[in-house]
Amino acid sequence: MLTSIRGIVAASIFSTTALCAVPAFAQDAAPPSDSSITVSANVALTSEYRFRGVDLSGGDIAVQGGFDVTHDSGFYVGTWGSSLDEDTVGYGAIELDVYGGWTGNIAEGLSADVGVIGYLYPNAGPGDFDYIEFYSSLGFTLGPAEATVGVAYAPEQDSLGGTDNVYVYTDLGVGIPGTPVTVTGHLGYTDGFLTYTDDSKAFDWSIGAEAAIYGPLTLGVAYVGAEGDYAPGAYDFTDDAIVLTLSASF
């Protein structure tokens, strides 16, 4: 994230084309071309897994991917996963997200996305780690610029210490005319359990750029960070970092 999500960015994870998606189904299972069902997928290799500015891979490279199944009506289901640093983070070695929702245009240049996501940690140690979050966002498009504003709410759960968590964010992407480059920015704010601050409130941010480099391959770079309070000598999960990501969508 914590934010698979994120982030990561929740808006990018739940876009219609599903940026957080992987290996497509076998060819013999693919729907016919006139089907109302679309399967999309992606894989990624990133220098760090940052979820809402928080380092969930212990500063190490993470392998990620998932797939989405979308109906013409806008309803979709999907899953996405990432490797974690088992020793540093404490959630085990794998994060698996399962989600479903609806997305579609509600006016010219305006789209909406609503749904629910479960964050699962299948090989975590003893204790409660899995949690559920509800999300919604609005996307705006004007020429080469796209903006998203959204909110995610995780109700009270044992895995959140018996409390809840609210996350609000905005994302911005501007394509540079005549180039394959898009400049991106993100600002988020967390109020609740999923922070590393003493008062359970934290901002996170990123600024970067991404470009299509060959076929389905995209290369991105971002400067990412978040607020955090740490005891001397403790691992800094929110220290600012430059994150490189190579991804492919299918």
Stretches where pLDDT is under 50 for at least 5 consecutive residues are 1-32
Structural class: mainly beta
CATH architecture: Beta Barrel
* Rg over CA atoms: 18 Å
Strand order of the largest sheet: 1-4-5-6-7-8-9-10-11-12-13-14
User: What does the average pLDDT come to?
Assistant: 88
State the end-to-end distance: 24 Å
Task: Give the number of domains.
Answer: 1
Q: With helices defined by DSSP (H or I, 4 residues minimum), what is the helix count?
A: 2
Shape designation:
globular
Beta-strand content bin? over 45%
Report the helical percentage. Answer: under 10%
CATH domain class name: Mainly Beta
Can you walk me through this structure?
This protein is mainly β and 250 residues long. The protein has a single domain (10-242), classed as Beta Barrel (Porin), CATH 2.40.160.40. 3% of the residues lie in helices and 56% in strands. It has helices at residues 10-13, 86-89, and strands at residues 37-46, 50-51, 54-55, 62-71, 75-83, 94-107, 110-120, 131-142, 145-157, 163-175, 181-192, 201-214, 217-226, 241-249. It has a 12-stranded antiparallel β-barrel with strand order 1-4-5-6-7-8-9-10-11-12-13-14. A two-stranded antiparallel ribbon has the order 2-3. A hairpin with a 2-residue loop joins strand 2 and strand 3. It is globular and about 50 Å long. It starts with 9 loop residues before the first helix and ends with a strand. 36% of the residues are buried.
